Amino acid sequence: MKKILVAEDTESNYLLLSIILRKEYEVYRAHDGQEAIEKFEGCRPDMILMDIKMPVMNGIELIQKLSETYRNIVVVVLSGYGEYEFTSQA
Known about the structure:
The chain is an alpha/beta fold. It has helices at 11-21, 33-43, 59-69, 84-89; strands at 2-7, 25-30, 47-51, 74-78.
């Protein structure tokens, strides 16, 4: 089974995503970008689904950090904010 890491700090968003994703993926969770890096190294997911705005380390910082070491990881960025400049950086 493929693995997905969901980096989402809002509990209700995570629960909804995990219910949907559990049918196809083994789901791992991180509450912020720093925890996502730690979890990534432990579970080596096939994909990361992340919120763009998280505490400790945001989605853009997380992408930059992961891309230093892991070039082929698939990242899907979610945002409930209408800040085009911020999301387009991702």
